[in-house]
Amino acid sequence: MFWELTLSPKGQVTIPKEMREALNLRPGDQLIYSFIDGEVVVTPKNVDFNDLGGLLGKPPAGVASLDEVDSSVLKAGGANVVDTDDVAQSDAAA
């Protein structure tokens, strides 16, 4: 869908009602403006974390518990910081 908006003398635009409803925008919601490849992209900042469930598809090994998620994050992201056996090669501050 595309909407045509008019810039006011103060640099303001009014988001059409149909667009606000489609994006579930309410007064006071915040928007993020990005300039990508010569185009302005406006993204609502009101995304609910629960709405992202399933975004990446089904997990290959089934549903993971919070402990399994924590363990995987530690292994993947924090291993070089937590691993005390290899302090000389760590990028962590001394």
From TrEMBL:
<keyword id="KW-0238">DNA-binding</keyword>
<feature type="domain" description="SpoVT-AbrB">
    <location>
        <begin position="2"/>
        <end position="47"/>
    </location>
</feature>
<dbReference type="InterPro" id="IPR007159">
    <property type="entry name" value="SpoVT-AbrB_dom"/>
</dbReference>
<dbReference type="Pfam" id="PF04014">
    <property type="entry name" value="MazE_antitoxin"/>
</dbReference>
<protein>
    <submittedName>
        <fullName>AbrB family looped-hinge helix DNA binding protein</fullName>
    </submittedName>
</protein>
<dbReference type="InterPro" id="IPR037914">
    <property type="entry name" value="SpoVT-AbrB_sf"/>
</dbReference>
